[in-house]
Structures are given as C-alpha cells and as structure tokens.
Amino acid sequence: MKSFTVAAVILALIATPTLAQGRRGGGGDDRKTEKKPQIDEKAYKAALDRIPEPKEKYDPWGVTKPAADPAKKPK
Q1: DSSP secondary-structure letter at 65?
Q2: For residues 65 and 74, is the Cβ–Cβ distance under 8 A?
Q3: Rounded Cα distance, 48 and 50, in Å
Q4: How far apart are CA 66 and CA 73, in angstroms?
Q5: What is the pLDDT along the chain (75 residues), one digit of tens a residue?
Q6: 3-class secondary structure for 9-50?
Q7: CA angle 62–63–69, rounded 5-degree value
Q8: Residues with Cβ < 8 Å from 75, sequence gap 6 or more?
Q9: Where does the signal sequence lie (predicted)?
C-alpha cells in the first residue's frame, strides 16, 4: 500500500506541469486593439525623392579588397 501511494504521488507530480501547459487562462478578451497610423503613400514617395543621389558609389568592402589600379596604393 505504501508503494502504491508513493507511485501515485510521483505520477501526480509528473503530470502537474503537463496539465498546466495545456490550460488557457482567462476570461474574455481584455486586449485593446492598437490603432496603427495610416501610411501616406504620397508623403513616403516625396520623402524618397528628397534624398540626394550619391556622387560616387559607396563600396563597404573597398578597404578589404586590393585596389584595381596598382598606381593608387594606400600608404
């Protein structure tokens, strides 16, 4: 009888986390819907048009690559 009680307690302890994961808490939807700002396409395109074009192309790997022209070696 003692071993049966110990086995029942062990099974109950093992099953408790499993039951807790399956439960969904709460009553009702207390979540408030957040209002997202409306996207103004005209203003977005106008802002993109105001960005100036770069005069020369930026090369982020320019320092790591060897120069194409051997006459222009950095010191």
Answers
A1: S
A2: no
A3: 5
A4: 9
A5: 899 899 999 988 887 666 556 666 555 555 677 777 788 899 999 999 999 988 888 888 878 877 666 556 555
A6: HHHHHHHHHHHHHHCCCCCCCCCCCCCCCCCCHHHHHHHHHH
A7: 65
A8: none
A9: 1-20
